[in-house]
Each structure stands twice: as C-alpha cells, then as structure tokens.
Amino acid sequence: xxxxxxxxxxxxxxxxxxxxxxxxxxxxxxxxxxxxxxxxxxxxxxxxxxxxxxxxxxxxxxxxxxxxxxxxxxxxxxxxxxxxxxxxxxxxxxxxxxxxxxxxxxxxxxxxxxxxxxxxxxxxxxxxxxxxxxxxxxxxxxxxxxxxxxxxxxxxxxxxxxxxxxxxxxxxxxxxxxxxxxxxxxxxxxxxxxxxxxxxxxxxxxxxxxxxxxxxxxxxxxxxxxxxxxxxxxxxxxxxxxxxxxxxxxxxxxxxxxxxxxxxxxxxxxxxxxxxxxxxxxxxxxxxxxxxxxxxxxxxxxxx
Length: 304
Fold this sequence. Notes:
Order of helices and strands: EHHEEHEHEHHEEEHEHEHEHHH
CATH architecture: Alpha-Beta Barrel
CATH topology: TIM Barrel
Radius of gyration: 18 Å
CATH class: Alpha Beta
CATH superfamily: Aldolase class I
Helix content: 40-55%
Low-confidence stretches: none
Number of strands: 11
Mean pLDDT: 94
C-alpha cells in the first residue's frame, strides 16, 4: 500500500558537477541528463547561469540548456544569481529558475558577495519577472542548520528567510544542509517552525548533504513531518565550492532505495538511476561514493 508520492528533484548535473575539476564535455552532460530523464526523473536542475570564472564547470550553460530534449512533463530548472544570469537563461529558453541565498550573512557574503538582506533585494525583481513570464520559481536557503563561517544557526532564521522568498514570488523554498551538519531533531524543528509560520508543507523541500552520514536519517525525519520533496544527486556527487568540508550530496540511488523500501511512490526506476550513476562515475574517473551505487539494489528471491 502506497504511503503517498514523493518528488525527487535531481541536482546532479548542476550541484553534482559544479565543483569538479575534470571538465565534462557538453555532449556528455547532455547524455547524463538524458539518462536521468529515461530513469523517470522529471525535475532535473540542469545548469547554472553564473559567472563562468566562478564556476567554470558550468560555463557551457548557454549551449547546454537549448540542446536538452523537452519531454512531456520534464522540467529543467537553472540557477541564476543576477540580471545578467536571468537574461542568459531567458535567451537559452529557460522556463524554471532557482535563486540562492542563505540563513547566515557569513555564508551569503562568501557565496554571492552580499549579505542575506541584500541578496533578497536583488532577487525580488528576478522572481517578479520570472512570475510574469510564467516560469516556475524556487528559492534556496543554504546553511539552514549550520554555517562554516557563522557557526550554529537558530532554527527560526532559515524559516524567516524562506517566508521572505515566498513573499517575493518563489513557488517553493528549499532548506539546504550545506555542510552536512544537520540531524533529525533539527529537521523536525525547522519543519515545525515553517509550518507554524504559515509555509504550506507542499511548498517545502530539503537539500541534504551526506558529509557526516546523516542525510537519509534527515530524509526520514522530514517524511515524518509531512515533507514530500527532496533534492538528490545521482552518484552522490557534489558539494559547495564555498563551504569547506561540504563534499557529497545525498545520492539519488540511496534516496530511491529508501523510498522504495518505505512504500512511497516517486516514478523513478532504481536501475535507471544506477545506469546514470555509473555513467557519471566514468566521466569523473572515480568510483561511486554512494552506498547503493556500490552494493546495488536488492530484491529478495521470495516475498516474506
């Protein structure tokens, strides 16, 4: 019996690759994304329209996005940071964007060069324009549980930032455990405060890093609180170039295995995700870090 439906929001082509030093060819990125779509993923964050000198791995955004297959029901959100990025995204045919700020001023300054208040002011016209264009809009709140520069984060702070993003026109807010320090009790606390603040649960997503091995435990806590949207990166690749120690997103294959075992519907085929994970492993020239990527799925010979 199904326990409901979960959205798996794939960030491998963007967050998974952004910090890699080995340059991946545009054709290979396209093949990676096509393999993800074939596996059943319907939201694939494809790239980032930021300065190429800041994130050189994604410098081909202008050519990659227009080349992607526009399958029925598939969305390719892209990250934008400013007016220049917004204009590039529009020229490349974007119809879904994400903007990114933080719960702490220290991280916002290191990541995007301004404090949180200034970042929100800068995003206001971008989100407004995207809404007028009919684009889907997401707002990231990084360092929701801890910051490499400012330390512990009060649980109310990311909620306050998320509320402001929704007021500015975001369709969805995503709380990010950028350096992988969060634990389930913190996830329950942030979710509860968000609901108390009037943020609908269906507009909440989580982005967990598995830096300290707590990502799946945090997913379980969020599921128990009613959240049904989770970011993941096929192959467990990624991290943040501005957050020391933040290596490794929650792997899509690990998330899918958990959801299958817990009885949630999601529309993603584990075998297909593992095919994409093996592809990205070959492209990066290193073995998979994910648990299910190493061990594979498991089907009992007999039903219990």
